[in-house]
Amino acid sequence: MSSHRYHDLLALLGEGSAHPGGFAMSVALLSRLGLHAGMRVLDAGCGTGRTACYIAQQYGCSVTGVDAHPMMIRKAVKRARRSSVSVQWVCGNVRELPFPAESFDLVIAESVTVFMPDNEAIGEYARVLKPRGRIMDLELCARGMIPEEQVRLIYGAAKLPSAEEWMNRYRSYGFSRVKLLRNRRLSMRQTLRSEIDYPDPHRFVSKGIHKQPGLTDTLALNGMFLAEYETCLGLVAIEARK
Ligand SMILES: C[S@@+](CC[C@H](N)C(=O)[O-])C[C@H]1O[C@@H](n2cnc3c(N)ncnc32)[C@H](O)[C@@H]1O
Fold it and tell me: Does the C-beta of 203 come closer than 6 Å to ligand 1?
């Protein structure tokens, strides 16, 4: 299973919070960021746009969502229309962000940077942030031994970084005040709890999804990976300043 196949699956399923901790984690983290009306926020790898819409609706920020997957962006457009929220949607690559330097006060990334085989995306976050702008990145991390071939198969990355390695990646791109807002074991129970507490009212599952070739294989592989390595997997939320 390539990460590309995995993202196709998420897009078909219309998944709104395809990141560790689910929507509950987004809500909790965003409440710590001092968001306010007029702030320019970029959701990098926004998927179907649930977090981006929430930031615009809840905090009145001027939000842009960018994602490389056209179906994700189509579903994000639909979500925003259905919830009467104004967000700018852009189909583009986080490794080559289609925005001028110093455009945003805050960049949010939720389970996106981990799929980059290199660190280019972090350099791009830095480039598009205004001076003293901030990044908040919520990602999977390793808390134990996970075979590299498994990580490559699922995430297309050579390695799942530990919390310390994630922080060093940000430091190496000149970010300062790099801190961990969260650093804990991954909990399937918590993710399930989030889905119960925060059901997604604008999830659009593609018709005929069950006929997609390889769908069940992709689902099964991902499920088996998470179940087998649950004790070795964690989530980190990093906040850092440019
Ligand atoms: C695991 S999903 C997370 C989506 C969303 N942030 C969320 O939490 O629901 C990863 C997202 O990253 C997007 N993505 C992967 N590589 C990308 C790239 N190079 N540029 C832009 N988006 C990318 C995928 O299309 C997918 O929507």
Answer: no
At 86-103, the pLDDT tens digits run 999 999 999 999 999 999
- pLDDT tens string 154-191: 767 767 899 999 999 999 999 999 999 999 998 888 88
Calculate how far, in angstroms, residue 47's C-alpha sits from the geometric centre of ligand 1: 5
Distance CA 45, CA 3 (A): 13
The C-alpha atoms of residue 194 and residue 24 are separated, in whole angstroms, by 5
The β-bridge partners of 233 are 142
Cβ-based neighbour number of residue 47 at 10 Å: 27
When the candidates are 3.40.1360.10, 3.30.420.40, 3.40.50.2300, 3.40.50.150, the CATH number that belongs to 3-241 is 3.40.50.150
Q: How far is the CA of 46 from the centre of ligand 1 (A)?
A: 6
From ligand 1's centre to the CA of 45, what distance in Å?
Answer: 4
